[in-house]
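Problem: given the chain below (466 residues), write out its structure.
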Amino acid sequence: MPRKKPNILLIALESTRFDHLSCYGYQRPTTPNIDQVAAEGVLYERAISPAPWTLPSHACLFTGLHTSQHGTNFNNPRLNPDLMTLAETLAAHGYRTGAFSTNPWINETLNFNKGFDTFRWAKRAFEWLAPIFPRETILEKVVRYVQDYWRPPSLRNNVLIEKWVKEAQASDQPFFAYTMYYDPHYPLRPRPPYAKQYLGEKYGRWLRVNKDPDRYMAGAVQMTEEDFEILRGLYDSRIASMDDIIGRLVKSLRGMGILDDTMLILIADHGENFGEHNLMSHQYCVYDTLVHVPLIIRYPARFPTGLRVQGQVQSTELFTTILDVAGIDRQAVKNDLRGRSLVPDELAVAPPLPYAISEYLVPNLERMQRLFAKYNWQQYDRAVRSLRREDYKYIWTSDDRPELYDLKADPGETNNLAAAQPELAAEMQGQMDEWLASINQSDRSAQPVQELSEDVLERLKDLGYL
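Solution.
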């Protein structure tokens, strides 16, 4: 019999496109272990992230709110301390809580440890050197590169999680654990043996391909379709590596005899661009390449085996879904929670989601301006917000270049219908305006990224953010 309050394991898949997972129909067998989790649980066909990159997307996951509400963004990277987090709520209702992050945005400096009894993130190869050398040494960088090649942080994360879970099992408390696997994030380095498997005869060319998104988007380098094909091969190899590591963790939980007592959630924080709309990486847009994400939930007591949910859902609704499964009244949370429960029985009787909102409100132009100042970086200096129905998506832009797409006829969002269908565009803009008027918008003052610690800044530079 499952626990009255189940364990909860929330796994964030960094930069993972839904259409590169084989359980979502991808032609390459990239994810046999995730496929097995989907076969034993519920797969959501149209899950929409409220933000297209890690920092605001995680703030949405942790608070159940949208970016306009929580205000966590590039110009204000700290999670609002006045908001209740999912971990804080679960801890108040008897859960033991632990977080294990491999991404520098998700760290205690930015308040993402709020509510977690245990919080770990991969800072440096030799953390004991930090008091002596504020910046990471050359030796540490080399060691970290080698580790990423042979024993990635995600694999080391598994060791920490498994140890923590065993300790939690010794108590009478259910546990809530969060972890992130950042394997498919730029820069895309090969990892054996997967790189050769997915690149084939093109393996020897990966070093010559540009892997700097800013360099491409600023127009400082031209790239061919073959270049992007090689990048997609590297990307798929990293997804396959991540899948293997997730499979090991699931096997470990199964071996402990607690897998069926655990609500296992797999969700990407956002997707990735490989030349679509002349973009790389995950900035400057809210197209489906970034905001349509995989979501899979396994918990046999409440989620039927092998079900695929077709209707649109939003990842902000995970907060309310977890509360439902844990038996916690949403009134116990002071945040303005509006999400439905995604438990299939509850979802079947809930009103359909009229639309999903995604926002990219503060562009990160710091690196592009610094390194490619003479190129056309100004085109990205704008905010965008989308309202996505099941059939159409409308995109508001701060520079007055609205976009409208028929998602059924044009899933790649290549034919802008805003001028051809002005009445529909105006209707959806009106819905967006009504939504904005209905929420309490954040008015937090900016706190520059440069105020972060040296460790965090170094890691963000390595990942191409600064």
